[in-house]
Amino acid sequence: MSDITVRRVNHGWFVRPAEETGTGRPRVEPTLGYLVDHPEGHLLIDTGMGSHPDVDAHYRPHRIPLSAALVEAGSSRSEIRYVVNCHLHFDHCGGNPELAPVPVFTQRTELHTARTVTDHTLPELIENGRYEELDGEAEILPGVLVVPTPGHTAGHQSVVVATGDGTVIVAGQSHDHATAFTGDVLGARAGVGTVPPWLGRLLDLDPRRIVFAHDNAVWEP
């Protein structure tokens, strides 16, 4: 659809400690959201990092306030009509309370986990949200399709957006970075290794580019 665009939203960065990177060294990662400018209103995919003393001590985040991040992306809090969280960890739903009562699209299993598993998220980030619970794929707006991409969490989801410049997939944290996605694509072609069962579904949607929550790099076919 020629009148739909996708723009990056910079929510800041954090330091992933060495024990979580698989490399033995800490890694600084961006925290990115994506703004979908749609005829039916602005849709925000991921809302930034929540705050808690233990979280801050562990990840040393540098947060960009939601209002400032949206202004830089060409929007404002009052213009956001819909929210999608790829999953409900603290670094993806931190701005949800500021946007209430805007509807938040999430997989039912992800919301259940966030509400029942003690260390899944910061409870205050999800307590009073207006959730639209999904069970699998759903077209939430014309040209905007949510596709489950479990792995990082059981309820992780990606967002497929039909723009005038081709299909953009916001893959969130389906992979930590574009290089890991490339590895799975090549592995699937070569029949090597174990790849996510939903990878073929994303590729069948003919993406022009795929973007991620913690990597500035963009995957292109």
Q: How would you characterize the overall build of this protein?
A:
The chain has 221 residues and is an alpha/beta fold. It has a single domain, classed as Metallo-beta-lactamase, Chain A. Helix content is 23%, strand content 33%. It has helices spanning 18-21, 53-59, 66-72, 96-99, 108-116, 178-190, 199-204; strands spanning 5-16, 27-38, 41-45, 62-63, 80-84, 103-107, 130-134, 138-141, 144-148, 157-163, 166-170, 207-211. It has a seven-stranded mixed β-sheet with strand order 4-1-2-3-5-6-7. Strand 5 (80-84), helix 4 (96-99) and strand 6 form a beta-alpha-beta unit. The radius of gyration is 16 Å and the shape is globular. The model has no long low-confidence stretch (mean pLDDT 97).
Mean pLDDT: 97
Give the helix proportion (percent range): 10-25%
Biggest β-sheet description: 7 strands, mixed
How far do the termini sit from each other? Answer: 20 Å
Q: Count the beta strands.
A: 12
Uncertain runs: none
The CATH topology: Metallo-beta-lactamase, Chain A
Shape: globular
What is the rounded Rg? 16 Å
Could you state the CATH homologous superfamily?
Ribonuclease Z/Hydroxyacylglutathione hydrolase-like
Succession of helices and strands: EHEEHEHEHEHEEEEEHHE
Query: If classified by CATH, what would the architecture be?
Result: 4-Layer Sandwich
CATH class: Alpha Beta
List keywords for this structure.
alpha/beta
